[in-house]
Design brief:
alpha/beta, binds adenosine-5'-triphosphate, four-stranded antiparallel sheet, 8 helices, binds magnesium ion
C-alpha cells in the first residue's frame, strides 16, 4: 500500500531563523523521492513535519486524503530517523513486534519480514550482536512492520562504509519492488540518490528551499550496471552542478 504526499507551502522558523522556506512538493503514490542538500538546509525539518513530529510555521501536508496528524494517528507513516534510538536490550524480533503493537496492526509477520530482510537466524539478537548493516535492516523492518503507506528515511545508510552502503541500497531497491511504498529519502550522497530515486529534490543552503527537481527517468529496481547508464551520469552531473556549482560539473 502506498499513498501520495502533498507538501503545500510548508515553511518552518525556529525563533528568528528560517529553517525551511515555503516549499511545495507533490510525491505520487509509490514514488521514491530523494531529498539532497547541504547540512542545515531543512531536510530533517521537512521530514519531521511530514511525520507530524513537528508543526509547520506555514502551509500544510496531506497524505492521501488525510492531514499529517490524521496520517500519524492512523499509523500511515514509517520513519527511519537520522539518529535511531537504539535500545540495547531489544531483540530484532521484539523491535519489529513493538511497532506492530503500537500501531495495533500486523502488516507483515515479523518472522517473514526479518527473513526477507536477510536476518533469518538473527531474530533473537540484540543491537550489540548485529553488524551495522544488519542493524539498519532491523530499523527499516521496524519502520515498515505495520505496512504504512509512506516511508520517511533520514540518511539511513550514512553510518555504513561505502561497500556496505551500496550493497544495502541495492537490497532496498529490490525490497521496495516487493513491498511498494511512497518514499522520502534524505541523503548527502548523489550516487545513492540517483541509483534509488525517481526524482532528486535538490535544496539550497540554509535558509533551505527547493532549487530544482532532477528526474531519473529509468524503471526501478535498477541493476548495478545502471551506474554506467547515460541517464545516471546525466542526473548525477546535474545534481553535482546544482550542489557544487558549474566549475565541478565536468
Ligand atoms: N528544534 C530545533 N530548534 C532550533 N533550531 C532547529 C531545530 N531543529 C532544527 N533547527 C535548525 O533548523 C535548520 C535546519 O535543520 P535540519 O536538521 O532540518 O537540517 P538538515 O538539512 O537535516 O541538516 P543535516 O544534513 O546536517 O542533517 C538548522 O539551522 C538547525 O539548526
Ligand atoms: Mg538532517
Amino acid at each position: 500500500m502506498a499513498a501520495p504526499v502533498s507538501v503545500r507551502g510548508v515553511s518552518r522558523r525556529f525563533g528568528d531563523s528560517v529553517a525551511l522556506r515555503p516549499t511545495d512538493l507533490e510525491v505520487a503514490a509509490g514514488e521514491f523521492v530523494a531529498l539532497i542538500g547541504p547540512s542545515g538546509c531543512g531536510k530533517t525539518t521537512l521530514l519531521r513535519i511530514v511525520a507530524d513530529l513537528e508543526s509547520p510555521s506555514g502551509g500544510e501536508v496531506r497524505i492521501g486524503a488525510d492531514s499529517a496528524s490524521a496520517a500519524r494517528r492512523n499509523r500511515q507513516i514509517g520513519l527511519v530517523s537520522q539518529r535511531p534510538a537504539v535500545l540495547p536490550w531489544k531483540r530484532a524480533e521484539d523491535d519489529v513486534r513493538f511497532t506492530q503493537k503500537i500501531a495495533r496492526r500486523i502488516g507483515f509477520p515479523a518472522g517473514l519480514l526479518l527473513r526477507d530482510f536477510g536476518l533469518a537466524g538473527h531474530e533473537g539478537k540484540r543491537p550489540a550482536e548485529l553488524s551495522g548493516g544488519m542493524l539498519q535492516r532491523v530499523n527499516i523492518a521496524s519502520a515498515i512492520a505495520h505496512d504504512p503507506a509512506v516511508l520517511l528515511m533520514d540518511e539511513p545508510f550514512s553510518a555504513l562504509d561505502e561497500m556496505k552502503r551500496e550493497e544495502l541500497g541495492a537490497w532496498f531497491d529490490a525490497e521496495l519492488a516487493r513491498r511498494p511504498k511512497t518514499v522520502l529519502f534524505v541523503t548527502h550522497n548523489i550516487e545513492e540518490a540517483v541509483m534509488l530515486a525517481d526524482r532528486l529534490v535538490v535544496f539550497s543552503p540554509a535558509p533551505g528551499g527547493i532549487v530544482e527537481i532532477v528526474a531519473v527517468d529509468a524503471p526501478r529496481p535498477r541493476p548495478p550496471s545502471f551506474r554506467a547508464d547515460p541517464r545516471f551520469i546525466a542526473a548525477a552531473a546535474r545534481a553535482r552542478e546544482l550542489l557544487f556549482g558549474r566549475a565541478l560539473a565536468a
